[in-house]
Amino acid sequence: MTYIIILLLVFFVCLSLIMLGSLWYMKVLLEKMLGSKLRDLETLTVTGSIPEAWTAKYDRQMIRYQERGKIKQVKRIQQTARKVYLNKIGKLAAHVRRTTLVESEEVRSHTLRILQRVEREWRDAVTYGSFS
After folding, report:
1. 85 contacts 44 by C-beta, under 8 angstroms
2. How many Å apart are CA 91 and CA 31, to the nearest integer?
3. Residue 37: exposed, middle, or buried by beta-carbon count in 10 A (0-12, 13-18, 19+)?
4. Residue 129 and residue 132: Cα distance in Å, rounded?
5. What are phi and psi of 128, to 5 degrees?
6. Cβ neighbour number for residue 75 with a 10 Å cutoff
7. Which residues does 81 contact at the CB level (< 8 Å), separation at least 6?
8. Helices then strands (H, E): number in the chain?
9. Do residues 20 and 12 lie in contact, with contact meaning Cβ atoms separated by under 8 Å?
10. pTM of this prediction?
11. Neighbours of 8 (CB within 10 A)
12. 125 close to 49: Cβ distance less than 8 angstroms
């Protein structure tokens, strides 16, 4: 009889640990999938600038090549960064269009207008050669 009780107790402890692990994993996945998008979207709409999470990698590379005096590589990295930024802005706009997490259609259209303005600024930067 005590063997069955101990076995049940071990089963419930293991089941509880599995449930806690699953909850933690779901939290991590949601943060990765939605949290980063929402943070990036907030940065773009509030400040109108590219999120630091996007720029950090390219900034480090550009600084490294500028210190070495390799201007061609810096320009190449700038072009790559612009393409990546424009691609990510486009993906965020597509996310805003299809998500049900937006409060209303008015908020959706306002957010899309801001994203289009930021995207247009970066496309003009590509056209005219400035990098900010």
Report:
1. no
2. 17
3. middle
4. 10
5. -95, -5
6. 14
7. 55, 58
8. 5, 0
9. no
10. 0.70
11. 10
12. no
What tokens appear for 12 in the block? 């419930």
pLDDT at 126: 59
Tokens representing 68 are 């070495």
Alpha carbons within 13 angstroms on the beta-carbon side of residue 104 total: 3
Tokens encoding 17: 């640990």
Tally the residues of the chain.
132
Phi, psi of 34 (to 5 degrees): -105, -40
Q: d(Cα 32, Cα 40) in Å, to the nearest integer?
A: 12
Which of 117, 67, 61, 125 lies closest to 89 in space, CA to CA?
117
Q: How confident is the model at residue 29 (pLDDT cuts 50, 70, 90)?
A: very high
pLDDT for 60-95, tens place per residue?
Answer: 999 998 888 888 888 899 889 989 999 999 999 998
